[in-house]
Fold this sequence. Notes:
Blueprint: E1 8-9, H1 23-30, E2 33-37, E3 43-47, H2 50-58, E4 62-63, H3 76-83, H4 96-105, H5 110-114, H6 117-134, E5 138-139, H7 140-145, H8 147-157, H9 164-175, H10 181-204, H11 210-219, H12 226-239, H13 241-257, H14 259-267, H15 272-283, E6 290-294, E7 298-300, E8 303-305, E9 310-313, H16 315-319, H17 353-370, E10 375-382, E11 391-397
Parallel strand pairs: 1-2, 3-9
Antiparallel strand pairs: 2-3, 4-6, 5-11, 6-9, 7-8, 10-11
Helix pairs in contact: 3-10, 6-8, 6-17, 8-13, 9-10, 10-12, 13-15, 13-17, 15-17
Organism: Rhodococcus jostii
Keywords: Heme, Iron, Metal-binding, Monooxygenase, Oxidoreductase
Amino acid sequence: MHTETETASFPFDRTDALAPPSEYELLRGTTPTARITLYNGTPAWLLTRYEDVKLALTDHRFSADARNPGFPFVSAALRASVGHKHIPFLRLDPPEHDRLRRMLSREFIVKRIDALRPAIEAIVDRFIDQLLAAGRPADLISNFALPIPSAVIAELLGVPYSDHEYFQERGRRMLSSEYTLEQSAHAVVELREYLGALAERKRAQPGDDVLSRLVIERELTGELDREDLKSSALLLLVAGHETTANMIGLGVYTLLRHPEQHSLLRADGQLIKGAVEELLRFLSVVHTGVPRVALEDVPLEDTIIRRGEGVIASIPAANWDPSTFPEPQTFDIRREPNRHLAFGFGIHQCLGQPLARKELEIALTRLFDRVPTLELAGEHLFGPEKSVYGLHQLQVTW
Ligand code: HEM
């Protein structure tokens, strides 16, 4: 049993660029349900074992509904982004969650995403051209990793890419702990207004995109109201952006730092799928894990998590649990099985995962095909830490 005094401030920093915070290893062994303190002094439980994390994500006694008192927010920015009275289905429970998610699920089935391949390839090629045109050395993050997911989601959703600075900047304010609650809340209001105006234009002139289909097939039929439509569109715009961008940047960095794994991949392009899965596990960019709140008392390990208490299920800790992943610190693109939790688990498991996988496969394959001499150069800037871990700058040459 643990006492209230044994609390650690969460989130922990990463001291090694390519490993989760070292605290997890210790806690997993000694205190699998650890008491932590969040940014505003609120206590919560931290889960670090693979099986416990999976349980928190599948057991209906743990809720994802951010309106529950006790819901653990890891930063003011995240609190603000769901503080609005209309919250995205990521932070709702069934039946509301299921109803809203179902309206989008067919947009993300593998077959549909496979059909996007030529569009994604064209986008990736465009940013490889931009990177090469920037001259040596160039920053891979601003020229390649960041703009790709932004352009892809803009294309899919039907948002003009020319507005990317507007939605990227506000998306950052919604996620980053650098901003105050007011700044983040204001970003939510602005993006909702922007998406509302865009939905109005789609209503008058629908296109072949997700937002148009939501307006025509769901809103006009009375299934979906405008506020929920804006929440779902906002979730898509923000959820897949920073996560995928950080995976592309860190993915390139990790491969360049592991030349022998990189050579294996270069010699056999079929290994790309395994390489993407291992990058997802190894990097676990959802740095602050996923938040849940207990709806009733739940006995777990040597503790009872009381009704109303917040739980952080740590994805990075679960993905490095040696009881599930032998030698978790070894980056092995042929790791098999690799049942990582990088996309979460259970009913909230990432809706965009087929898209994220496709983007990563195409971006990494084409970059190394077209620029085979790519290597690291100069400074690499990690952090400051946000809820999603990543590189702010990655200088490369070729
Ligand atoms: C490598 C990139 C990505 C990672 C690591 C990632 C990770 C995650 C995780 C861990 C969750 C579950 C959160 C929870 O249980 O509370 C999630 C949910 C979600 N993700 Fe992703 N994601 C990625 C890319 C994307 C993309 C590209 C999109 C869409 C364009 C997207 C859309 C969503 C949505 C809509 C949800 C909410 C699902 C629900 O609540 O039912 N994600 N993602």
